[in-house]
Write a structure and sequence with these properties.
Blueprint (H helix, E strand, L loop, with lengths): L12 E2 H7 L12 E2 L1 E2 L9 E5 L5 H5 L5 E4 L12 E4 L3 H12 L13
Parallel strand pairs: 3-4, 4-5, 5-6
Antiparallel strand pairs: 1-2
Length: 115
C-alpha cells in the first residue's frame, strides 16, 4: 500500500489481532504470524494482508502472495491455496477496519464520496 499520504501507526499486527478486530474465528495454527502491512491483491507480498471481493481480480487471487486475505465464502475457491483466508460477509469493509489499524489517519481522508 502506498503510505505516501498516511503515517503508519503499527509496525505489525498478528493474525490473531485481525481475527479479534473482525470478530472472526479461524482454525489456523498460524495465529501469531506477523502481518507487516496492507496491500491490494495484485501487489500484496508475504506478511501482508489483502482482500478479494470482485471476480474481475480472479487471476490476481489465484496468484496472490499475501499471507492473509479477507474473502467471502463464495469467492474462497478462487484464492491461492497458500493464503490464509479470513471469511467475511463484506471483505472490503473488514479490510478497511484493518487498514485503519495500520493507518489511523486514513479514516479522516478528505475525499468526498458521492452517493
Amino acid at each position: 500500500m502506498n503510505n505516501l499520504f498516511f503515517k503508519k501507526a503499527k509496525k505489525f499486527i498478528t493474525l490473531k489481532d485481525v481475527l479479534n478486530i473482525l470478530n472472526k474465528s479461524n482454525k489456523s495454527n498460524t495465529k501469531n504470524s506477523k502481518l507487516l502491512d496492507v496491500n491490494n491483491i495484485k501487489e500484496a507480498k508475504s506478511n501482508e494482508i489483502t482482500f478479494f471481493n470482485n471476480l474481475n481480480y480472479e487471476k490476481d487471487a489465484k496468484y496472490c502472495k499475501a499471507s492473509v486475505c479477507i474473502v467471502s465464502e463464495n469467492n474462497i475457491k478462487y484464492l491461492n491455496k497458500n493464503v490464509i483466508p479470513v471469511i467475511s460477509k463484506n471483505p472490503l469493509i473488514d479490510f478497511y477496519k484493518i487498514v485503519s489499524i495500520f493507518y489511523p489517519e486514513s479514516c479522516f481522508d478528505n475525499e468526498e464520496i458521492n452517493l
